[in-house]
Design brief:
The protein is of the alpha/beta class. The chain has two domains: 2-215 and 405-433, Rossmann fold (3-Layer(aba) Sandwich), CATH 3.40.50.2000; 227-400, Rossmann fold (3-Layer(aba) Sandwich), CATH 3.40.50.2000. The protein is built from 15 helices and 13 strands. Strand 11, helix 12 and strand 12 (346-349) form a beta-alpha-beta unit.
Length: 434
């Protein structure tokens, strides 16, 4: 089966560090199924603070093509000017215009590459697979012109809490496009952002909508390094071997609310807990968060690892004492699955999206989002009670039995894609007989 994959998201993690494991694992799953894949990526990172070009993806065994974006530097500069003028954030009208322009111009850039592959390269494709709402329109147009079924893959949404407000599709046209573009299938990640509610509100036919949780990329064998060896290999200074390691693994964006963890760390240190917050991840909020840690007197207790290779995340989880996650939008994400699989007790905020994964006093201690003191007490309690931590670790390992591996998750998707293509071929055969 020949697939043309169009992604508005660069495959960072295929180059070794950071990025979205769900995108990487989707491509790996398609490769394992024996699909012949051509992947189109954007020339630039769409929303990076600096103008950054995308690599073709070291380590990829599939064909990769970059869509030229000569229009993007001017658009990126306009976005940065608006942010500076408005004190760091974009006003709603400017965001609306810039996002829509990016969506439409990116669609044109993707189409140019797809047409070159089809008509100059004489390539034929059985399926077109678009990653994210920014690629959804291009995927649908290419599928219709190439007479192939198309899939839109959505990695969550922010629309669920907005659906009761008027004119949502007009106010957020790009986010809505991921659902509104009439793709043959929409595959939406069940990551706690309630994409199923959005699909129902927009009246997406159930047979077109697949709502699946991500899987786990388990290591071939458990990590065996001790803490000292791990710190030396990662070239990290400042890690105290005797301290409790509280690990966090996420991009350093505002909605990840790392500031809550730093405030909880301050309370723990004032209570006499010898603990360190070990942060794996990079992002635009790093400088602000480091300044906050220094301001609160815990600059030496927050250790910033930057982007960490995926295999090293497992090693870090294995060496840590507990896992902490305090996101605003949703806490149901791959690092939480990895912490559960690693048997780590969790300190988090109360969140309906994780109600089936985290139980207060069973495998986690939970606090209200708006109560930083309660979050600090949770951290203090679990750092100071080894029996509680051991009991929660055992509960975590039982909970891990219900998680999908990525092999299992992608086997379900591959079956759906094969059925979609087979159905399309059958429809074409009936048309030809007429």
């Amino acid at each position: 089966m020949r697939i043309l994959e169009v992604s508005a998201l660069p495959v960072w993690s295929m180059a070794g560090k950071g990025g979205m494991p769900s995108l990487r694992e989707t491509l790996r799953g398609h490769e394992r199924a024996g699909f012949d894949i051509a992947l189109i990526l954007p020339q630039y990172h769409l929303f990076a603070d600096r103008l950054e070009q995308v690599s073709r993806g070291e380590g990829l065994s599939l064909e990769v093509y970059l869509a030229r974006m000569p229009w993007f530097p001017a658009l990126h500069a306009a976005r940065q000017v608006c942010k500076r003028v408005c004190g760091g954030g974009l006003p709603t009208p400017a965001r609306w215009v810039l996002n829509l322009l990016t969506f439409l111009l990116l669609t044109g850039s993707f189409l140019r590459v797809a047409f070159r592959l089809r008509y100059r390269g004489r390539r034929r494709f059985d399926l077109v697979y678009a990653h994210s709402q920014y690629a959804s329109l291009a995927g649908w147009i290419v599928g219709r012109l190439f007479r192939a079924p198309n899939v839109t893959r959505l990695y969550g949404t922010f629309l669920a809490d907005l659906m009761r407000k008027p004119l949502v599709s007009l106010r957020y046209p790009v986010a809505a496009a991921g659902f509104r573009v009439p793709s043959d299938r929409i595959i939406c990640t069940n990551d706690g952002t309630r994409g199923d509610e959005v699909a129902r509100a927009l009246r997406i036919a159930p047979e077109r909508f697949c709502f699946w949780q991500n899987g786990l990329d388990l290591p071939d064998k458990p990590p065996h390094e001790d803490r000292r060896q791990l710190a030396e290999r990662l070239k990290v200074s400042g890690l105290r071997q005797e301290a409790k390691w509280v690990v966090s693994c996420s991009r350093l964006s505002y909605w990840k609310r790392i500031d809550r963890m730093i405030e909880a760390l301050r309370q723990a240190r004032h209570a006499g807990c010898d603990c360190q917050l070990v942060l794996a991840g990079e992002g635009g909020e790093r400088a602000k968060l480091q300044a906050l840690a220094r301001q609160l007197g815990v600059g030496d207790d927050a250790v910033w690892l930057g982007a960490v290779a995926h295999d090293d995340v497992w090693a870090l989880m294995h060496a840590a004492d507990l896992f902490m996650i305090t996101n605003d939008v949703t806490n149901r994400c791959n690092p939480l699955y990895e912490a559960i699989a690693s048997g780590l007790p969790v300190v988090s905020v109360e969140d309906p999206s994780t109600a089936d994964l985290l139980s207060h006093e069973d495998n986690a201690l939970l606090a209200s989002r708006d109560d930083p003191e309660a979050l600090g007490r949770c951290l203090i309690r679990i750092c100071g009670d080894s029996r509680l931590a051991e009991r929660m670790g055992q509960a975590q390992r039982r909970r891990a039995e219900g998680l999908w591996s990525w092999h299992e998750r992608m086997a379900v998707e591959v079956k759906e894609l094969r059925a979609l293509v087979a159905g399309h071929r059958a429809d074409d055969a009936r048309e030809n007989r007429r």
